[in-house]
Amino acid sequence: MERRTIGAAALAVGAVGLGCMPMSWAYSASRQRGEESLRAVRRALDLGSTLLDTADMYGPFTNELLLGRALKERRADAFVSTKVGLLVGEQHIVANGRPGYVRRACDASLRRLQTDVIDLYQLHRADPEVPVEETWGAMAELVRAGKVRALGLCAVGARRGRRSGARLHDGTIRQLERVQQVFPVSAVQAELSVWSPEALDGLLPWCEARGIGFLAAMPLGSGFLTGTLTPGGGFERDDVRARHPRFTAEMMAANQPIVAGLRRVAARHGANVTPAQVALAWVLAQGRHVVALPGTKRERWVTDNAGAAGLRLTARDLAEVGHLPAAQGSWD
Q1: pLDDT by residue (tens digit) across 31-60?
Q2: Where are the beta strands (DSSP E) in 124-244?
Q3: Is 188 helix (H, G, I), strand (E, B) or coil?
Q4: Separation of alpha carbons 309 and 292, rounded Å
Q5: Which of 27, 58, 101, 121 is catalytic?
Q6: What gap in Å lies between CA 67 and CA 65, rounded to an integer?
Q7: Is 27 assigned a catalytic role?
Q8: Any idea which of 33-47, 151-165, 188-202, 231-245 has the lowest mean pLDDT?
């Protein structure tokens, strides 16, 4: 698989990585099977999808434990990314950016992941009660201690309450400018997909200009852009899409022209090319510093997603995808 570099340290990873969250968090608990997920991780590594993205809050903790089982066998083949900064309660999630907590959380993640070093340690969310510089400083100490190789920041992602005329990621850019004064940012993780392209306006160019890697989260629109979801098919109660405005039967039907457009482009490249591969190839075409992180827990989809790294969209393809109808429905 094509390799891409993250940050000034030029950390090399496969152009398509693997988001591990669905294996134990947020999507259809009845379909979460450890052995099946382990096969998916191993297949990803076989195909060169080396960046494995997790977080201590996924589960919580069980996603890192699962990934640790695979890393025990294949650590040399993997680029491990995990996150810190969010605590999960029974009915709520809170931020914790206190330096002492960051240090303890890192040690706990290292134990669960069964590794001596985390390749990329990301701040999941800044704690409003702690200056982000203090949190980032504690994370930088972990690099100096040899427990972490590089640091990343996840986009704020708040859509509601934006100032009139403000871009979606202006808050994230302000945070990045602050933490860059403390220690270099190697990567930024934010949503980017055909139906959620807001990062193209500001955040992605900001990263490119500074040599910072961009990790494209949810590049398949939480599964919608694969064309495998049926409008009105329903989701399990614990699946985040069951409460998502864009995944009502009405909105899924309204957004089918987006999937139809991806199918048209895929057909030009061969009978075996899928809408998901076109959606991922479009993401990868947005810059050499972009790495796509589709999440899945199935070996079949890992294989399909990895195939996008070898798909080269033409100028006509990119223009056609770029002019697909804007997604309908709130994404909050």
Answers
A1: 556 899 999 999 999 999 999 999 999 999
A2: 148-154, 187-191, 213-217
A3: strand
A4: 9
A5: 58
A6: 5
A7: no
A8: 151-165
